[in-house]
Amino acid sequence: MDIDGTGPALPEARGELSSAVLTWLTSGADPRGERPALPTADQVRAADAYGEDLQLALYLCYELHYRGFRGVAAALEWHPDLLALRALLEERFLTALRADVPAADGDTASDGDAASDRNAVEEAIGELLVEPVHGNGLSHFLEQEGELWQVREYAAQRSLYHRKEADPHAWVLPRLWGKAKAGMAAVEFDEFGGGRAEQVHAELFADLMKDLGLDPAYGRYLDAANAEVLATVNLMSLFGLHRRLRGALVGHFASVEITSSPASRRLAHAMKRTGAGAAAEFFYTEHVVADAVHEQVVRREVVDGLLEAEPHLAADVVFGIRATTFVEGRFERRLLDAWKSGAGSLRTSL
């Protein structure tokens, strides 16, 4: 029996959904054996789509497709009962996003004309390129007034994202072709270190964590992380695991790469100003240069290539961009609201 012995430890439950999933995952090594009941559709529909409980339950389902959890049978990754629950959780999350994200127009073909849809993509990308004169976002705060303890909290939460940064994007490669596939593969090659293990961006973030006195182990701060950061990771997995959402995944990828360089410049300054350490500063200075190049490749090769081959996916690209902005905005507000009130942003102490 293939029981994972190296993955991260399972977290504590945050409600009835995540508690039921955790009980189900630990109810025996044999995936064919009798297992307890999983949550019903009514229970999922009643849950807060962005809440701690649903986001953790969805994260638990998704994590089986990455490194799994210590003590959990690898074969459970494809268990039909868990996949059925995952579909319910995904639908609850996706339905909420479609209601809350502006100009989100379906997840399949648009009924508009190609020129109009393409203009909508250019408009969404243009929104990402605008840098406010007086920025008040999270990277601005950390650059201008953040303290070392806040930098540490930010890094601990972001580790759930950055320690798997490029992995969910790789799932889209078999679903693209031509210019879009080549451009995507080129950027992913850089994200994975250009063939050098020590330069893999996820490993560079582990070095950043060591500089900050944090445990760099994959998934180490899952219990400390709040629902808002889980949603940013779950969004990548949702888009990456579904072929029908490949356009949204490209939109997510574009959003990440286009906004990364200026934000990384501010975060590099924050690391230097707070004395976070050389590796912490290097992680962001590396992204300033790399992502400035990636931005052009993503816009001209990946997005353009996708829309040349499949113009009907334009609305999905817009949705992916704006859904990413939405969940990232919720994460930023959660941290800033806590810090500006004098409180910590984590669920558990570091």
Briefly characterize the structure.
With 350 residues, this protein is mainly alpha-helical.
Please explain how this structure is put together.
- By secondary structure, the chain is mostly helical.
- It has 14 helices and no strands.
- Helix 1 packs parallel to helix 3 and helix 12 (246-274) packs antiparallel against helix 13 (278-309).
- Mean pLDDT is 92; it is low at 104-110.
Strand count, sense and closure of the main sheet? Answer: none
How far apart are the termini? 35 Å
Based on secondary structure, the structural category is mainly alpha
- Shape estimate: globular
Q: Evaluate the radius of gyration.
A: 20 Å
On the 0 to 100 scale, the average pLDDT is 92
Number of helices: 14
Helix content: 55-70%
